[in-house]
Each structure stands twice: as C-alpha cells, then as structure tokens.
Amino acid sequence: MVALLALLAAGLCNASPIVRDAYGVPQILAPTWEEAFFHAGYAVAEDRLWQMEMNRRIGAGRLSELLGPEYLAADRETLRTAYTPEELDRQFQSLSSRSREAFESYAKGVNAYMEKAAREGTLPPGYQGTKPEPWTVRDSVAIAVRLFRLFGRGGAGELRNLAALTYLQTQPCRERALDVLDDLAWQNDPEAPTTVDPADDLPADKRPSFPKFSRADTEAQLAKLPKLNLLELLPALRLAERAEGASVAERLGLPSRTGSYAIVVAPKRSATGVPLLVAGPQMGFSRPSVVHEMSISAPGIAVAGMDVPGVPGVLVGHTLKLAWALTTSVADTEDVVFLEGSGPDAYRYGGSSRKLERLAFQLRPKGAAPETVVQERSHLGPILLSLRNGQARFALRSSFWMSELESYDTLIGLYNASSANEVLRLAPKATMGFNLLFATTSGDIGFAYLGRVPLRAERLDPRLPTPGSPDTEWRGVLPFDRMPQVVNPASGLLTNWNNKPAAWWPNLDTPVWGRVDRVDLIREALGRDKLSLWDLEAALWTIARRSEVYARRQPLWRAALVGFSGSPLEADAARYLTAFDGWMVEGNPAAAIFQAANDELVSLLLEPHVGSLLGSENLRRVAQPTFLQNALGGRTAYDYLAGRKRDDVLREAFQRAVAKLSTQAGNDPALWRYTPGAIRSTEPAVPYGNRGTFLQIVELRPLPRGRTVAPPGVAESGPHSNDQTPLAEGWRYKPIAIRP
Prior knowledge:
Penicillin amidase (Acylase) alpha subunit, N-terminal domain, 5-stranded mixed beta sheet
C-alpha cells in the first residue's frame, strides 16, 4: 500500500497541471486552490490573450490608447459611469478570502504566460512588437463589473420611455399619447407565462406589493420634469443604454448581447430518474467566442463549464454535486432621477443645495491628443445628462452601486453547494439580477430570482424619471425571502427564457412580459411525460426553428384569408400562408410570407398614429408581440384599428407583403425563400443562430456527466479555433470532464 501511494504521488508530481481534451479545452488538476486558479489564468491567456486585452480595456475605458481615436466615444461612455481604481480595489477587498485568492492567483497565471510568450516571441500580432502591460487583479475586477452590469442589471428605461412620450406628443396620436404609452408599456399581463407556477408560488401574505399609480399620478410626475425635446434626450438615452460600448464590443468580439434560456427536469419527469439541466447563455457570437471553457480540480473545487476570458473561474457549469444555469432576469434595479440644478456645480434636494462631485479620468488615445473625461456624481449616482447650464440633470441610481462584485462570492459558493438549502443560503449575497436555476445529484431542482430590487415610493410611475426628493427615496430593497423562488415544483419541470418570474411581478419600466412569450416554445417542445437527454437536445433544435408568435398569430391570418379573393398571385401566396405550420425553416416560402405579413402588419397598425420617423425596424422593436395581439383584439386604450375591421387590416397587410416579396423575388411564391439568422463568426456560417453561445446539457448522475458546445472553438488561433463549428452545425455536443 505504501509503495502504491508513493507511485501515485510520484505520478501526480510529474503530471502536467493543464491537460487539454480533443477540442483543446483545458482540464486543470492542482494540489491547492491557489495553484488551480494560477493554472486557470495561464490556460485562458494561452487561448485568448488578445481577447483578454480587449476585455480589460473596454472594462477600464482604455480601448483608444491601443486602438486609436475611433474608440474614444466608447471610452468616454464607459468613464461617465465608471468606478475609480480605488473604488474597484475596495470592491475587491470586500470579497471573501477564497474569492480574493482566486483573483490574485489568476492574475499571476496570466502574467506567467505573458512573460513566456514575450520571451518566445509568440505574443498575438495585435501587440505589434510591444510587450503587454502586466495583468492585475484590478483588470479582472473591471471586467467582472462590466459583465455583471451588462447581464445582471435592469431598468434605467425611464429615459427611453420619456423620449418615446416626447415623440408621441408630436404625432397624430398626440392628444392620447399617454394612452399609447400605457399600451406599449403595460404593467402586468396576468396571462404571461411564469417561471414559478402559481401552484408553487409564495403565499399571498409573503408577496410584496409594488407601487400603484394612476393617470393623475403620471401627469403630476410629468409636470415635475423639465420639458425637453428629443435632441436633448437622445445623448443621455444612448449613455443609459450603453449603446456605443455595446456596438464596439460586438465589433471586437466581446460580450455585448443579453438573453439566455434554461431547462431543469426533476427526477420524477426524467426518463432515467435523475435530474437534467440545460444552460444556454445567449451572449452573441464572434470569432473567437465571447466565452471560453475549462474544468478545474483541486482540494475544495471540482467544476467544469463556461468562463469569460479575464474573470477567474467557471460562471455557468456543474460540479460533482450541482449543475446551474444563469439567465438575465430583467429586474428593474436602476432608476433615472431628475435633479433640479442649483448653479453650475450643485443641485437641489429636499430644499437644500448639494454639491456635485467631479472625477477626472485621463485618456491618452493612440495618435491623438490626450483628453480628460469628467464624471459628475450626485449622492444618488453618476449624472447621465446635464442641460441648460446645469439647471436640469438626470442621475442614474443603481441598487447595486459599489457592490456588483459581491455576486462573485455567490458564484464561487456554488462550487461547494450540494443541496437546495445551501444554494438558497448563497442567493441573498447576489446583488445583480439573474434567474438562477439549479439541480443537485440528491434529486432537488430549484429556481431563485436574484438581485437587489428597490422598494419604491407609492404613487410614482416607474416608467418615467423620478423627481429627486426625500419623498421619492427608495424604502430599502426587497428581502430575498419575498423574491420569486421555488424548490422541487409540483410539475417537475422548470423553464426560463428571460420570462416573467411570478404572476404578481410587474414589468415596471421595461415592457417585456406578456402572454405572447418565447418560453412557450420550450414548453411545447417538452411535451413528453418522461424526458430524456435526447428530448432536451431535440427541444433546443426545435426552438431555434419555431416562430414565437405562430400559436397566437396564425389563427388570425387563417380567419382573415378564408374566402379571400385577390389576384392569382395573392391567392397562391394565401395558400402558403394559411398552410404555414410555425416552422421558420431555411427556404420555406410559407415562413417568408408569414414574416413579411407580420412586418407589414406592424407598420399598418402603428404608422398612421405614431408616424414613420421611427422607421420600420424601430416600429417592430416597439411593437412587442403581446402589444400587437392586444391591438388586434381591441384590448388597448387607443384604437389602432381606427374603426376598421381586424380582418380587413390583416388582408391589407398580407397584400402589402405579397407586393414587396414579388418585387424582391419574382411572381412565383414557391421561390420566395425564408433565410434564418446564422452564426456568421463560424466557417462556414452556421444557420439557426437562436441558440446559446455556450450550450451545456448535464445529467445529474452520482457522477454527473456534462456535454457542451461553444463554437467556433476554444482558442483564438490554431487547430482549436474553429473545430467546434461542425458540432454546432449538426447540433451535436462533446463531453466536458472534471478531472478526478
């Protein structure tokens, strides 16, 4: 026995701490927690050093220093709401010791690889002969803060809604602009599908109440806001939505899009009697992918799954006891607050004057003169917009201000959780808005709605900027035990596609949850009583090809076109449309007609009332599927049918679509082709891009088995830069292993 132990010890000492599988995915085996994260940093830098460089620069607002003046706008936008280096350091110091050790060891590993690459002359060509700056803990903290803000924040839509209302007041609907706003930005649709089934919901006495407001309250609130025009509002709107940074991030192949779906199956619904979990973070596609894969094993850690280059550890994945998924929750955790000016350097609050804080950030863009970006701050948060010599200011208030990084402790804590109770004990620490879905090898499945949701004052319209005063202050944040959550639901199934968490939860400032919701596609695809891994795979294949509005919209088209007598071309096209079965499949003429007819329907319903300045693409973005269904069904405050019969409007939209398609593709509907969205970053482009950037399917056996795919590949260059494209094209998966 002693000899055997000695032999094993010698083998472990000689083994490489980083082993790569057939797809180049690093598997790390280390004797300590610190060494595990050292090698994790080394391995990710080996795969994605240039992407890490871009990630740290966009997080710190320093892209222009390396890439030139065309990135100045993105840097300025970042710095207008950024933390100082000292504030980032304070967030880091607030972490648990294990989390701090992970960041510190990861940075050392990145630096070890950079030094090796510099010695060997193998640095990415983007450095153009210059040596990269040493990687710091602060770099990783800035990236993590940016990611948490991108995927875990919600709200701040008040300026968007105010701009929309300002625009509507110049259009034919001007006298009833508030009715239109109510239609487009409704508060609660009781028919909207929820992650927590009403049968599993919190008792009524534990559910929080949300502020109630009337039309009179809305009008009173508007009266306290300055009268602004669109040109004044748009710069702040772009800053609140981080529009420039998102555009640059997408161009550079960095995280820029939010979405994601998840499925969890309990043992009683599982064909094999063990829990199953699907995680599909939808973060966009690029080359290289915005995400990376790895597994890490050491005393106190055994985890595999998805990481983001620059941030230590697995963010979505599984351990030997637990698997989890994260999706964006769309919780309203930010408000835009109007502050009345009190001279150029101050603002009024509660009858007194408060001085603005000004922070100077230095920019040294490559090939251009240095400049200083000044961030103005109120006691509520950074100033998004200052107008009319400082007499009108809008501040961004965030419930998670200076505490984004606390959510990292929750994620790291999942590595050692083995029961639902342990997961739920970690949940209150999370400051950012996420849907957390999980399953354990002991048979539990669960869901928790995470984040700090403000308790707002009564009689305030949450869709519009809040007039800043002590009377409108937040009353704290919602306690976790009053947030939507469930363990072991009666149905044995949990599904989420960023949909509404519970029936009593309102939209607040962002109208996304209604009775027409894409999560229904997942539920329809999981119709079997007992579900296998292959059923889950088939569901993912299916939802990428199905129309999310088919079930609600197609009966209307069929009813409108019964007995329709148009031209021979229209009659031919109508046969395709009425036969459409919901499959948005490449080359399908019926799908092309269905899409075109729905696009024309939006224009026909809205343009006569709200004008065409928004453009057809923006109109379609504004007209959420539930709104359109309401408008066609006469369930809106404003009459968008304008006295016309619904079927007449549908027929006219259909005729317009046929006319456009015939102009574009000829007079034979059989040759009209639907083209699905694709993953353009892969070679060749992979069709049906409505899928997870990273897909994970885990069977929670006594020893969990996970399979994943993250096209195009794990590396920036070389043989593993594109070797997952064939998997993605065939909707296939590869194993991801935790080294024992």
